[in-house]
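A reminder from the course coordinator: this example appears on the midterm review sheet, so study it carefully.

Given structure:
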């Protein structure tokens, strides 16, 4: 049995990926320090899959704590989701972002070398393409200048992994650049559960839909796009999870070195289109107003999906309507998110 260590496996994307790996016959071990997730996710995963996954409450920056995971298990591959991800927070807490995201990656690499674990999938982001307006982004598009510390951590970790794979000939790395993951598992038992007031569009719309936030402000209505609002490549988190399974499958074909794939749908959806689709899903209007532009926003961002389709055999199948319906199913069943851990 092929065992995958999923760091950050109780988080939004990690938890959905755990389900997909399990469905595809992989053995899963989860390591998460609960910095942005709750133990209840593990219970929910058990309800969904009928399986209690082996879980370690460890900080991936803590070498001696993480060593226990490598000591107690034979790990074949690692998917490294663990990291802090809030763009705005990273601007006011740069030290915490650089320290957590880079040290956790370095510690994982160190232990991978020591325990001869050679397969790594890393959660990167479309943010590494910077502010280029040359869409769609292909994997060959030049990396850009990031606009915040969070983006730079992804950019820097990609470089660290490229350097490591050149030096360590056994190491195989797949960088997955996600576009905008949204939606939730069809059960409505797990989904995105941000703390505080959300910054991202879908969590914000969801909170307006449940009535816990009054109104969505659309950041800018005067872009050079069909309806004046920004276009993004929203991808259903369950499609994204399947993309990780395909990446782990593809590892066997990769001799060594780094390969990189975009995970998106290849389609841009405007903020107004997203709001309309969500209104249809929840059955009522989403109170909104057009406000000023948000600094650092690209007018249009979507992926070229050719490479992932050709080499991974990955093609996202779920529509924006599916994303909104599943998001609403999760949000309406859990209007206050998951219960806090005791
Ligand atoms: P998330 O915050 O829901 O999940 C991350 C998980 O990692 C959390 O459970 C958190 O507790 C854990 N974690 C953080 N630091 C840790 C550490 N030092 N040790 C152990 N666990 C730690 O975020 P997500 O949306 O599931 O994102 C997963 C990964 O994908 C992140 O690396 C993120 O940067 C990346 N990513 C996310 C998006 C997005 O829009 N959600 C887009 C591109 C890339
Ligand atoms: N957005 C918005 N109002 C919000 C949050 C987001 O209009 O309260 C817009 C944002 O300007 C962008 C799109 O929704 O055009 C997606 O934003 P998000 O932060 O979710 O993703 P990102 O910009 O990082 O791709």
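Designed residues:
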């Amino acid at each position: 049995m092929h065992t995958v260590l999923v760091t950050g496996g109780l988080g939004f994307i990690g938890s959905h990926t755990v389900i997909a790996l399990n469905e595809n016959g992989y053995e899963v071990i989860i390591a998460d320090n609960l910095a942005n997730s709750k133990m209840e996710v593990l219970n929910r995963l058990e309800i969904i899959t009928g399986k209690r996954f082996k879980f370690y409450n460890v900080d991936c920056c803590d070498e001696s704590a993480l060593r226990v995971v490598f000591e107690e298990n034979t790990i074949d591959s690692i998917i490294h989701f663990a990291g802090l991800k809030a763009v705005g927070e990273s601007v006011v807490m740069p030290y915490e972002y650089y320290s957590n995201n880079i040290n956790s990656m370095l510690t994982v690499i160190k232990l991978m070398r020591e325990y001869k674990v050679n397969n790594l999938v890393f959660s990167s982001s479309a943010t590494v393409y910077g502010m280029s307006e040359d869409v769609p982004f292909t994997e060959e598009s030049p990396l850009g200048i990031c606009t915040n510390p969070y983006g730079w951590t992804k950019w820097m970790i990609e470089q660290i992994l490229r350097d490591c794979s050149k030096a360590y000939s056994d190491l195989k790395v797949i960088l997955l650049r996600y576009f905008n993951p949204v939606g939730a598992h069809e059960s409505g038992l797990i989904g995105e559960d941000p703390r505080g007031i959300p910054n991202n569009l879908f969590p914000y719309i969801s909170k307006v839909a449940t009535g816990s936030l009054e109104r969505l402000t659309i950041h800018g209505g005067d872009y050079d796009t069909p309806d004046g609002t920004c276009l993004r490549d929203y991808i259903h988190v369950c499609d994204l999870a399947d993309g990780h399974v395909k990446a782990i499958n593809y590892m066997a074909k990769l001799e060594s070195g780094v390969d990189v794939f975009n995970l998106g749908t290849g389609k841009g959806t405007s903020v107004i289109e997203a709001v309309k689709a969500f209104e249809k899903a929840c059955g009522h209007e989403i109170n909104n107003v057009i406000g000023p532009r948000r600094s650092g926003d690209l007018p249009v961002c979507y992926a070229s999906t050719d490479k992932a389709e050709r080499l991974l055999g990955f093609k996202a199948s779920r529509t924006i309507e599916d994303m909104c319906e599943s998001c609403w199913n999760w949000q309406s069943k859990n209007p206050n998110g998951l219960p806090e851990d005791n």
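The longest strand covers residues 119-125. The mean pLDDT is 97.
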